């Protein structure tokens, strides 16, 4: 198949679960013999659109990547002001103003829509990540009718998800690639029940041997201390601030060597504490070393559609402690038997005490998580499901015929 992926950011230096999710599928589908191209922007992080990658085409792990220029940085004051008005004011906001907010969120490229209008029909299927960003909102409605479309929505129950501006987008793909059963049910509740799909998940490789745990400890001053690990962006919406505050309270009640380590880019500063370490973004090898040496992974995020880091920890045989108010994490913990849930401080204290006092419990949880990942997220099984899904999208597109005439453009996008 000739497969086109459309995603807001793409590359080895790009953090973010959805972006990593897309790169994994693109690279592995290319390795299976498919012709794979990616349409993306030059942006690297979520807070700026400035061109950190050069515009143009490159080959990356067997995939042809088309990078489109993103000509300005985010106006953060405008974005924050509009975000409050659109998401939190409780007032009815004109659709045109919501679209301004969506564009301010970025990244936006003025050449993405014309590119898709001219070239998307040359592919067998176009796959979009993720529902939230302009690249999907504008790109999906442009490609629809020209090529079969699949959407990895990576959706969770957050305020933007319910905005009417996404109504058409969420009902328009030929098929969905759902990450979990919970994401499927949420999208059906949102009104996308008429669109078929498959629960695909994300594949996981066995944890590599020989990870440099000792090097990670030495670089970040951990010595031989036990530590809890948080992988991913340090962000209040990811539960990072709450966890840091609860951990500080835990250390007041349970003095000792236990540390909390955040590994990932920082949207906000971590509250200062002598037992809290924030490394910032690290290489894949260092990340693996961090995971290898951890007592357990903590996943405190309120909003997840899958949680690749949780599956990554289980693939390494590590137990986890997860935010139970997140329905995806709670369900994954229940199905796997590989994690202890918590809702607030008291639950967290009980979970940490249990893991620290009972190594056999920690080992059983880690082993249960590993078995779960090996059964459900083996890459060969995942990709076989995925190829069947892409075929379903092509058949549905052929049965429905063209839905839009050529030349359909998003208002103002080609300016």
Write the layout of secondary structure elements.
Blueprint: E1 2-6, H1 17-31, E2 35-41, E3 56-60, E4 63-68, H2 76-88, H3 95-105, H4 112-119, E5 125-129, H5 134-143, E6 149-152, H6 167-171, E7 175-178, H7 181-192, E8 197-199, H8 213-219, E9 227-231, H9 240-253, E10 259-263, E11 276-278, H10 284-293, E12 296-299, H11 308-315, E13 320-323, H12 327-336, E14 339-342, H13 345-357, H14 359-376, H15 379-400
Parallel strand pairs: 1-2, 1-5, 2-4, 5-6, 6-7, 7-8, 9-10, 9-12, 10-11, 12-13, 13-14
Antiparallel strand pairs: 3-4
Helix pairs in contact: 2-3, 4-5, 8-10, 11-14
Describe the structure.
Helix 2 crosses helix 3, helix 8 crosses helix 10 and helix 11 packs across helix 14. The protein has an eight-stranded mixed sheet, with helices on both faces. It is 42% helix and 15% strand. It is globular, with a radius of gyration of 22 Å.
User: Can you tell me the CATH topology of the largest domain?
Assistant: Rossmann fold
Q: How many helix segments?
A: 15
Q: Give unreliable regions as ranges.
A: 403-415
CA-atom Rg in angstroms: 22 Å
What's the main sheet like? 8 strands, mixed
Percent strand equals 15-25%
